Amino acid sequence: MSEKNALKVDKRKSNELIKLLRNLKLLDEDLKIKRTDDFIIVPLLRKPTAEELEKLNPVKPTLHVDIFAPRVRISSVKDALKGLIPDEMLNLVPSSMDLIGEVAIIQVQDELKPFLKMIGEAVLKIYPRIKTVLVKRCLISGVFRVGGYEVVVGSGETETVYKEHGCRYLVDPVKVYVSPRLGYERLRVASMVKPGETVLDMFTGVGCYAILIAKKVKECKVYAVDLNPNAVKYLKHNIEENRVQSRVVPIEGDVAEIVESSLRGMFDRVIMDNPSHAKMFLRTACDALKRTGGVVHYYEFRPESDLKNKVLEEFHGNVEMLRRSVKSAKMRVVREVAPRIYHVVVDATIQ
Ligand SMILES: C[S@@+](CC[C@H](N)C(=O)[O-])C[C@H]1O[C@@H](n2cnc3c(N)ncnc32)[C@H](O)[C@@H]1O
After folding, report:
1. Which atom of ligand 1 is nearest to the CA of 281?
2. Is the pLDDT of residue 109 over 70?
């Protein structure tokens, strides 16, 4: 550490001085400002010129030389944990987590469990908007596709507003499926919808596909179905909140039964976002499409070895077994969900 040029001012002038120094590109942001009872001493990148001192005159600074400690920038949860947990554990701290409104969801390996509270506190420190930190205790499972969570730190409130592409969704990740990782995919699909289309969102959750489509495409109708009563409660709220009541029809129940009883042959486009069970519902999707055909967005989880040919070959075969034909189909990887396991989508035009 060496001596640096600095300016000393009355502490009541602190904000004004820092603003002026930033404008003049004189402030050394890598060093810590010193504070006494009456003054602050601010490190500079270089000695100010006479002209610059003139501009600083309103805050009446005095030139000074001092030694400053480096400023430690805490920008990640790992940084915030340095010195608090053993170094060998730091590498195990996850570098990403799901931030859903005011709720953060972390997933940690068993070795980190004794440090869970500290990790949670670090998350609160790095993300001031977060009120509750949850840890994922078990993977997303069951028909409703909800994970098992436990509160680590914070208020414990888990109902929150999640914002995506200008839409607001009231959600509770403990009760309904919600994933901020599908934001791009939802936008991609919504961008393909044309005015005049009738769309079926077979597994809508809280409505993240259906509501986005209805917001983007003014002349469309989206039927949004889910089996989870909590998801449909939030869906109805979110339809109102985003003012798309005239374009989204919420329906609670089993989509297979609902299509069979009242929605056959109605749709230009069907979204099948239930990757763990997609195949079971392909017949329902085909039945829902207009007889003249339409587009299906078919999601699955598949190992890397299936991506080259198998996904599309199987899709073609399965559709043909239902006595429909695939006019065109393309596969794309949405994301990696586990080592070499992928969430994929087939965008297909079916006749
Ligand atoms: C992966 S989540 C879909 C989430 C939603 N598309 C989104 O973007 O957030 C699957 C959803 O399918 C619903 N589901 C499961 N079986 C169903 C069925 N037979 N009929 C309707 N919905 C069902 C679950 O309750 C869950 O909300």
Report:
1. 19
2. yes
Q: At what angle do helices 208-216 and 229-241 cross, to 10 degrees?
A: 20
- pTM over 0.90? The answer is no
Are 289 and 263 within 8 A, CB to CB? no
Report the nearest-CA residue for atom 12 of ligand 1: 203
Q: Is 204 in the pocket of ligand 1 (CB under 6 A)?
A: yes
Query: What's the CA gap between 97 and 77, in Å, rounded?
Result: 10
For the Cβ of 234 lying below 6 angstroms from any atom of ligand 1, the answer is no
Model confidence pLDDT, tens digit, residues 54-79: 999 999 999 999 998 877 666 789 88
Architecture of domain 177-350: 3-Layer(aba) Sandwich (3.40)
Calpha distance 350→309 (Å, rounded)? 19
What's the rounded Cα separation, in Å, for the pair 174 and 181?
17
pLDDT attached to residue 73: 66
205: Cβ contacts below 8 Å, ≥ 6 apart = 145, 176, 177, 178, 226, 228, 231, 235, 273
User: Is the Cα dihedral 72, 97, 134, 83 positive or negative?
Assistant: negative
Fold for domain 3-67?
Alpha-Beta Plaits (3.30.70)
Q: How many other CB atoms are found less than 10 A from the CB of residue 102? A: 18
Task: Give domain limits for the chain.
Answer: 3-67, 77-158, 177-350
Q: Which residue bears the tokens 């109605």?
A: 266
pLDDT, tens only, 172-193? 999 999 999 999 999 999 999 9
Alpha-carbon gap, residue 224 to 250, rounded angstroms: 5
Cα–Cα distance measured from residue 130 to residue 149, given in angstroms and rounded to the nearest whole number: 16
Domain topology for 77-158: GMP Synthetase; Chain A, domain 3 (3.30.300)
User: At a CB cut-off of 8 Å and minimum separation 6, what does 247 contact?
Assistant: 214, 217, 218, 220, 221, 222
Cβ atoms of residues 197 and 222 within 8 Å: no
Pocket of ligand 1 contains residue 40 by CB under 6 Å: no
Instruction: Answer whether residue 207 shows pLDDT above 80.
Output: yes
